[in-house]
Design a protein that fits this description.
Distance between the termini: 58 Å
Structural class: alpha+beta
Radius of gyration: 35 Å
Largest sheet: 5 strands, antiparallel
Number of strands: 20
Strand content: 25-35%
């Protein structure tokens, strides 16, 4: 087994700081988070002013009159931990919460993500995008990983047991009430604590301390309560200030996307569309309103980078009619789908996914109706046999008419001229750079009497001396002196 522990030492402070991304001026002011009227966590500006954890609020304000003290909010901390857990579900379903952090068992995911270092890097990268700062550590047991994560400055050893022996005893949860006693007897590290008689440790400090040590060194197993993603995805984010430009919402929207894709990964599901709701502040002229921003995917996905890219394209073209104070994200049309297998060579499915993503990006940048595709139309005349329509949006009328009037199964060229080109004749034979040799035909078409665009033609496949295949036709109705009766209509690739 291989465990990755994520410890968030300044979680209460991160909850306050991550809401201030839009204001650099606010980020430079001294800020502290208090717990029971005592300073618990400080930002860099507060530390530079001499403010330290453990001070009373009065003493801290005496050092700096501009200090802002925010009370600790445990519900928001739990919510932030759930956000981190949802992101961790991208890499493994075995995630458990512990204190100010979480643990993830990733042994089964090493091959999929190309090793533990790659998992750790991507995990920490997503945590930072959520506005949190954490320390990572890896070990063969959950407790060992958790203890190592609490001391990121500790020197790393190849031997896990040696690394644990060098940890200070204050990292043990059940050693907190006995720190003064342990230090008094010269016991400062886990290695020194392990040298004490086990019976004496149990009698003087309790059995739980010895159990915690045994779990860290793999001598005792431990059960875990795995984090379970909610049945319904609901994510909201309150902004610290009014946002008046749509592009400024991308940073906050990215946090919601990371939670959504982690939830989808845990459910083995994909989404074919998302809706970002932008909630506006109330005023005298209007009540509290919200504006939807809907993203429709050509192919269902749960890729956070792809969804973020589509949001960026749409937000760049959006003009807000009122400032936004809150965001919420909703998943549309969720479907079950397992993760795709890795491929050595490109398949039709992977190529279709690449084309679909290109079309989605063009639609979000240029507009839904700006990207067209050719759809079959029930008409035997080549110039009317297809029609341009929005991608992924062929009308039912087009589909019904195509079913009623199927197209001919004859060979058609890949390049059809917008207007037929008249051809010269030489000894009653058509000429295009050279006399043409008729290979197949005729294919007779008589259609268009219902819309005053009658076409009566005999089509042939012809070849010239340069071995170029042409699609030509000969008119069947008209006077002899009407001019040329042979026309070039298409070219074969």
């Amino acid at each position: 087994m291989l465990w990755i522990a994520l410890h968030l030492p300044q979680l209460p402070l991160d909850i306050v700081l991550r809401c201030r991304y839009a204001s650099e001026q606010l980020a430079q002011l001294p800020l502290a988070v208090s717990d029971h009227k005592r300073i618990g966590w400080c930002n860099t500006a507060a530390l530079d002013a001499g403010i330290r954890a453990g001070m009373s609020e009065g003493n801290a304000r005496a050092l700096n009159a501009q200090l802002e003290i925010v009370p600790r909010t445990p519900p928001e901390e739990i919510r932030a931990l759930h956000e981190a857990a949802l992101w961790s579900l991208h890499f493994t379903p075995h995630v458990t919460l512990r204190g100010c952090g979480l643990l993830a068992e990733v042994a089964a995911s090493l091959r999929l993500f190309n090793g533990a270092d790659n998992i750790a890097h991507r995990l920490l990268q997503g945590i930072r995008q959520l506005g949190l700062h954490g320390n990572l550590a890896m070990a063969s047991t959950a407790t060992a990983a958790w203890l190592l994560a609490q001391c990121p400055s500790q020197k790393t050893f190849h031997d896990e047991q040696h690394a644990l022996d060098c940890l200070p005893v204050h990292v043990l949860t059940h050693a907190q009430p006995w720190l003064d006693t342990l230090h008094g007897i010269g016991c400062h590290t886990l290695g020194q604590l392990r040298q004490l008689p086990r019976a004496g440790i149990t009698r003087r400090f309790g059995k739980l301390l010895l159990t915690e040590i045994d779990r860290a060194y793999g001598k005792e197993t431990e059960a875990h309560a795995w984090f379970e993603a909610p049945t319904i995805f609901q994510a909201r984010l309150e902004l610290i200030s009014r946002v008046e430009h749509a592009e400024s919402l991308l940073f906050a929207a990215r946090r919601l996307v990371l939670q959504l894709t982690g939830w989808l990964a845990a459910r083995h599901a994909v989404v074919s569309g998302i809706t970002l709701w932008m909630h506006h502040e109330s005023s005298r002229r209007r009540d509290h309103q919200r504006t939807p921003l809907t993203i429709v995917l050509g192919m269902a996905s749960r890729d956070p980078e792809h969804l973020t890219l589509l949001l960026r394209e749409r937000l760049a073209r959006l003009t807000l009619h009122a400032p936004v104070i809150e965001l919420s994200l909703h998943a549309d049309q969720i479907a079950q789908q397992a993760a795709p297998n890795t491929e050595l060579f490109a398949t039709s499915a992977s190529q279709a996914e690449s084309s679909s993503r290109l079309i989605e990006r063009l639609q979000n940048r240029l507009g839904k109706d700006a990207v067209k595709q050719l759809a079959p139309w029930g008409d035997h005349r080549p110039e009317y046999s297809n029609v341009a329509s929005s991608v992924f949006n062929v009308s039912p009328q087009q589909q019904n008419r195509s079913r009623r009037q199927p197209l001919s199964a004859a060979t058609r060229p890949s390049w059809l001229l917008s207007q037929p080109l008249p051809l010269r004749t030489r000894q009653h034979k058509p000429v295009y750079h050279s006399p043409l040799l008729l290979l197949t035909g005729p294919e007779r078409i008589e259609a268009g009497w219902w819309d005053d665009a009658l076409a009566t033609r005999d089509y042939f496949i012809a070849e010239n001396e340069q071995h170029l295949l042409l699609w030509i036709f000969r008119t069947r109705i008209g006077k002899e002196d009407d001019g040329p009766r042979w026309f070039l209509h298409g070219l074969f690739g």
